[in-house]
Amino acid sequence: MMEQLYKIALTSFAIGTLFLPLLLFVNYLEARYPATTQLTSLAWYEMFIILMLLVIPFGTLKLLRVPWNGKPPQ
Q1: Which residues contact 66 (CB under 8 A, 6 or more apart)?
Q2: What's the rounded Cα separation, in Å, for the pair 31 and 25?
């Protein structure tokens, strides 16, 4: 039980650490383009964010070898 809690905490920390540069980039874009609060004119930016929101958590789980189905590895 403690090992699973440790893996969840480590995974959460790793995902948060990997999202930090992305959040800083969002802050930079919002400061640079203050008139576009939704940033709808930046389609490349939106695609980048969506891709990172999908790739980072699953990549982190895979790198930390956390089982995706909840069963312990054999």
Answers
A1: 7, 8, 11
A2: 10
How much is the pLDDT for 41? 57
Q: Has residue 13 been placed in a domain?
A: yes
Q: Is 70 within a domain?
A: no
In a 13 Å sphere around the CA of 51, the CA atoms on its Cβ side amount to 6
4-54: per-residue pLDDT in tens? Answer: 777 777 777 877 787 788 778 877 877 887 765 555 555 667 777 777 777
56 in a structural domain: yes
The domain of 16 spans 2-63
* Angle, vertex CA 50, rays to CA 27 and CA 65, nearest 5: 105
72 within a domain of the structure (yes/no): no
Measured CA to CA, the distance from residue 57 to residue 28 in angstroms comes to: 23
- Can you state the percent helix, strand and coil of the chain, rounding each to 5? 70, 0, 30
